[in-house]
Amino acid sequence: MKPKPAVLEISSQAEKPPEKWGSGLEFLFSCISLSVGLGNIWRFPYIAFQNGGGTFVIPYLIALLVIGRPVYYLEIALGQFSGRGVVKAFDMAPILKGVAAGQVLATAASITYYSSIMALTLRFLLASFGAELPWSRCWESWGSDCHDVGSNLTSVGKMSPAQLYFEREVLHEVPNIHNGLGMPNWQLVACLAVAWLIIGGVLIRGIKSSGKVAYFLGVFPYVVLIILLIRALTLPGAMDGIVYFFKPQWRELFNPLVWYAAVTQVFFSLAICFGTLITYASYNNFNRNVYNDIVIITTMDSCSSIIAGCITFGILGNLARETGVSDIGSVVKGGAGLAFISYPEAIAKFEFVPQASAAPWAWAPASCASSGINSDLVRRPFGSWPLAWPFLASA
């Protein structure tokens, strides 16, 4: 039998040219806005607070240089060489397809809580436009638990208005759930919906729109960080908190949990191993030299974390002096809500109109959005927009 002649099938649809960044600066600022976000302003301070302040900074900087920067370079190189999203980039090693799938799931998980935190910052932003900042004074409903700065009464064992406002008026925390979880708070639900609308609006045109937004998202956080840092440094007792932040407890350096927390923080802070960097680099020109970009990005990321830590611990030092607490590590309850206590406390110290203090909370949603938006902004192998789930786009 004669072999069948080979037939060359030509697709009726012309293949679209691959998308590219408008300029090298768009790639640089997009990576900065991705890395400098929640991992720095929200997660780093409370992780450092939980692990002894200065004790945590040393292993964090070591992990950044030994693990963070090389892995960052590896992901950028992989994406730029393959020119594909995270799932298809691993076609060169099919056995690693599971790694790509895991990165998609990690991005899907992270974008859900990023959006929730963005909703909290929007809630604070709206509250900032009132006639007075609601966390600048004690409410009658809080009883004797609140420490009023202008009061001559003893403040030992009391909590700041910012902490009580966050726990009782924003989160509506209850001592127990014997009476059930209750209904969702409509204000937070509305803010969460707005957060998703913001993310969708920026992503609607892919990198054509998000690349331009990155100029704002990459610069504005630093403007507000510097403003908050200056204000925090001028508060009484701030230097005590900053000394606590940088002074290590040498015995804790032998605690493996501190090193584990430092390595985990590096992954969150730089957004490595989430697949987003691979996709970002896939929009680069093949011959682009990204080494200088990576040095700039990782350096700015670590500096942002240190600045955010100075702001938080400076405010904690001020709270310790006002409440009469000698141990800065016990002045407030640690945990994920630490940033929502320290930053409002700094904003309340400004001697301006409340509308002026809304600027830092405008930065907070922008920073959260940069993390969430950039986690979403990736190629979409699961279907065309808007049928595909946004958070699955990271593949």
UniProtKB/TrEMBL annotation:
Keywords: Amino-acid transport, Disulfide bond, Glycoprotein, Ion transport, Membrane, Metal-binding, Sodium, Sodium transport, Symport, Transmembrane, Transmembrane helix, Transport. GO terms for molecular function: amino acid:sodium symporter activity; L-amino acid transmembrane transporter activity; metal ion binding. The chain crosses the membrane at residues 21-42, 54-74, 95-115, 186-207, 214-237, 257-282, 294-316. InterPro entries: Na/ntran_symport, SNS_sf. It is a multi-pass membrane protein. The keyword Transcription does not apply. It is found in: Membrane. GO terms for biological process: amino acid import across plasma membrane; response to lithium ion. Disulfide bonds join 138-146. Belongs to the sodium:neurotransmitter symporter (SNF) (TC 2.A.22) family. This is Transporter. The lineage of its organism: Eukaryota, Metazoa, Ecdysozoa, Arthropoda, Hexapoda.
